[in-house]
Amino acid sequence: MKKLSLISLGVLASLQMANAQTISSKKWADLFSYNNVTAMKEDNGKIVAAAENGIFYYTISSGEITKLSKANGLHEVKISAFDYNPQNKIALIGYQNGSLDVITPDGVTYVVDIPIATGYNGSKKINHISITGDLAVISVGYGVSIFDLKKKEFKDSAFFLTGGIYEASNEATIFGNKVYSVTNTGLKSHEMNTTFPVFSTWNTEMAGSFRHIDSEGVLSFSSATTAYLYSGGVSSPLSQTFGNVRDVVVNSNNIVVTDVNRVYTFNTNGNFTNTVSFGEECNTATTVGGSVYGGTVLSGIKNESSNSFKPDGPYFNYAYKMSLYGDNQILVSTGGREGRFNTGINNPKNPGFYYFNGMEWIYPSYFIGSTTWFNILDVVSDPASPDDVFFTNYVTSPERGIYKMKYNASSKDFTFTKNYNLGTTDSFTRRPVGLTFDDSNNLFATIAFSGEGSAQGPFTAIGAYDRATDDFLIKNTTSSFGAAQKPLFYEGLLWIPIPRVNSFIAYDAKKTVNTSDDTAYILNQSNGFATNSGGTISVALDKSGDAWIGGDMGLRILSDAVSAVKTPATATVEPIIIEQNGLGEELFRDSQILQIEVDAGDHKWVSVDGGGVYYLSADGQQTVKHFTKENSPLPTNSITDIKVDKKTGKVYFASYDGIVTYQGDVADVGSGFGNVLVYPNPVVYSNFKGKVTIKGLAEVTNIRIADAAGNVVHSAVARGGYYEWDLNNQRGTRVASGVYFVLMTNEDGSDKATAKIAVVN
């Protein structure tokens, strides 16, 4: 039985990852996929494996699995190269953006200053890393560099430049006192001496196009179809012919060659010893104690019995929109989007959707190996029958439409029920986008390009699901907008952003699926949207009933939205004006607002395309937090969806590079107090120099903080369920060491709470 632990990797047991990493904390966790294992290293009966967004460590004897990612130690995602030295316990991770993480028993060091050849403007991706002792040879698109693991600095680099053209080192290894590199033109070598950086002094040991190389006692390399043993300056082909070599690994006892669907082992003399099939594609393989382990594309690490070992996570990292419901259950769609437009692009992985049942991630077998073109923009569970799941397939092909599937808890799988083609056989029309349920559990869908090609033009349409007939009733809106976003239900209306036209729709379905009496209220540029905006993208309704509408050129607020939108001739949307350097400035002006979410305390989470995520005060006047890829575990600065579990305060961030979560401070905010918690407490200045957080407060809380003598040193009104104190007194200077009493009452004085804070300066 495998056990999962979130502590630091066992192979790096003495590391305290969180302490060595400034951008992660215990508040963050990853929901990354660890299926696609690209590199592995054995350490005394244990395997360290690299996946796309993190590394994990599998102890064969106990089944224990630990993981390390940007949420608890690493600095990046999109791992492209990895190696580990079991002797000195040092690992080196290379990323697609050209940066490195050096993992030692003392912590994680981020390296961004990799040498770049003059005039080179190609990919900075780290192609391969090979560690020998305290040195690593790093292969990049313009040659190789030697990295000193102890000093954490680069030594010599050789830029493979011939006739003004750079040649990539596909992989390289240190063997003896030489570096051997495989390129598309040959196996090249050079001693590590003073002429190493001069490419004209490198030798071509064998001409040809070669992909992989490794060494430990012996050296082996490969082309796409042939693997070689290199000895005494002579390259001898191994006895097998391969279809498509994925990797060559050399350890003390074996040469392991990974083909597309089989793994071949040879002894160090080059004699064939065994072949193993894992029943699926492998990227790499190694041997441990006489057994072969495969690093698969879709199942993590597999042993010869085809048992899979990996941290739990979604099938792929690609994520677009999320639905939270029930007891910690999550549905994740994976649809495509470019700019502000939903697209019918074909993701080659054809990912479908993912489901977390509260205990583990489940991937529907329906999508595995399917030739149907899926571009799922939204997936929801039916509140009236939670095992029924609906999803939208936004493609320009006959497969487009709304699909219904049923979940079987015993088999942990979904079965196909029906595809609703929305009343047309034209593959370009009636493409479904988003789904939502009203408070009577009626299902509604937004539909793009209804009637395209007809005299009426491309309409935005609404689809209402009629349970009696098991079909969707379609009604076009009165304006030819064409596109639409996911609808939000609030106070009897469907709130629908329109991404291709500078407009917004509030749709009144009259709480029925009968579309004949429905009304569409339309706001456009004349109502106050930015004049340079090409459309609206996101919307959220807050506790005050105000609609926060995000466009591709900023943010607008529609106050008292339900009432205002029903008189569109007079309705006005307003920007938020904040003071910057004494001047008023529009918040998020000219920024594309991908998603807006309101938490239990009425604070706003706002995703800005390319700008990360902002956590704003209820009125938007203050930025409480600003998370970016650079200062937090966010995998990218373009977060496609945000969801808040209002019971727990946990915030989910989805992106095309994976999902991460942040444990927020606001949960279950009401008129009275919850479980009031103060942290950190005690506050020791030498260990912590930030603000003290007080959570579990009422929606409006009057706070007085007094010293042991009863003198009030600080007072405030907290809104939204939590408060941060900077430890300053009324004069703006830091309070003295001592115990301070926090006295709190709610807005009408009907509830009260107290707490203590110990301060050590």
UniProtKB/TrEMBL annotation:
UniProt KW keywords: Signal
Domain PorZ N-terminal beta-propeller: 49-202
Pfam families documented for this protein: PorZ_N_b_propeller
UniProt signal peptide: 1-20
Domain of life, per lineage: Bacteria
Record's keyword annotation contains Signal: yes
InterPro entries: PorZ_N, Secre_tail, WD40/YVTN_repeat-like_dom_sf
Identification of the protein by name: PorZ N-terminal beta-propeller domain-containing protein
